[in-house]
């Protein structure tokens, strides 16, 4: 194996998908602890506080605790190199969240054991499904009362349409939580409370039949055997191929707060999840072990560091090797750039990596020339596919405070849309400008950046749009018919694409029924 192939084989690049409050931040801390990236878990959130911010936008970023250093975390674990990509969870949820999932090879789904599958879990799973991303599941908060685990697995299968294969099964919960039973390996992994912030050697009891197991489970023993019988009869056995096809998810139980079960999840990612995969470009499929460098940009974020007022473009490396000072071809603008100062995200700040391989993420300083979806290569003309726009779920009409600034407004919105900060729609029937977003914070960000960077002040108004769909139709005549009949709801988006702005869900289904030759797409590829 070449050095490069060995480096690729070591890599695992994944993201955590979860509904807010399920425990993503807590798990992230414990994962970093596993990688010994931080000495004491609990520092992920606090690291942001001592930064200085100068603009409103930066101030907002600071307050909400969004920082580029926690967007991508790289740490070593068991001879592997783990890249964990953060997907913002709360109000800072945005299109970036969705697009980050196009840059990973697997995902960890975290559910709150007391709540089960929640709306954001469903939305994020839908995005994972676009590329059949393998999903590992973790049911969290076993130190509290949780719902019946069998019911939780049923819910995963029914709502998320994926087979659930329990790898471990919980023994009790809340005050009775005694650990988990590893189904295939017939061993009990014992929960010892009070070690949430450190790595300990976890006690293991071999054999459920052993005297030790009986003693550990005590009153729970008989009931647990009965439940286990049910589980073994009703549940799927884990099948790695089905997992890799995105059809089955291995399920683990634990408590992130108690730092229990997180290591099992990380082990499963190392053992079962794919190493960096090949990627489709319009021209051909690119293999990660190819010698020449390629990568694509999936996210652009304003930099928090006041010394660098530019923005950072996050690039996923698809093949070859990044080396400091190398030359890259920015394919869309056909320019060669010398990249001397790409950011790497090794989580221990002492070590600065000077090289990176397929699966790794690097950050490029962007002075406005880089857009979401841009491909970089070592000269080859190549365009990676699969970095889509997602139909927005929230809409606002933009009202300009100073009518004389309409040109600046349009230019600003155009550029912010190209960068992926928002989506912009121009309805055919009026001079309105409508913004679309998937997270409500996107609107705040856009308003504050318009003010800061384009000197335009705007306000937002409610608008009667439920969702947007990109229109495609091969039959030119039918398309013209459609455009005439649907005129009231037709718009052109920031990229010049024909869009249908549906006022209600019912309206959209009616239109889809009425126009079978017209395709109403919920995602659109860049370029
Ligand atoms: P996020 O919104 O998904 O990032 O969730 P957080 O990690 O911030 O967790 C949300 C809340 O749940 C916090 O108060 C955590 O302390 C708590 N939490 C997370 N994991 C556990 C757990 O295993 N047990 C209990 N009891 N609380 C937890």
Automatic annotation (TrEMBL):
Its main location: cytoplasm. It holds the Pfam family EF-G_D2. Keywords: Cytoplasm, GTP-binding, Nucleotide-binding, Protein biosynthesis. Gene3D superfamilies: P-loop containing nucleotide triphosphate hydrolases, Peptide chain release factor 3, domain III. Residues 9-277 form the Tr-type G domain. CDD domains: RF3, RF3_II, RF3_III. GTP binds at residues 18-25, 86-90, 140-143. It is found in: Cytoplasm. Belongs to the TRAFAC class translation factor GTPase superfamily. Classic translation factor GTPase family. PrfC subfamily. NCBIfam families: prfC, PRK00741.1, small_GTP. This is Peptide chain release factor 3. The gene is prfC.
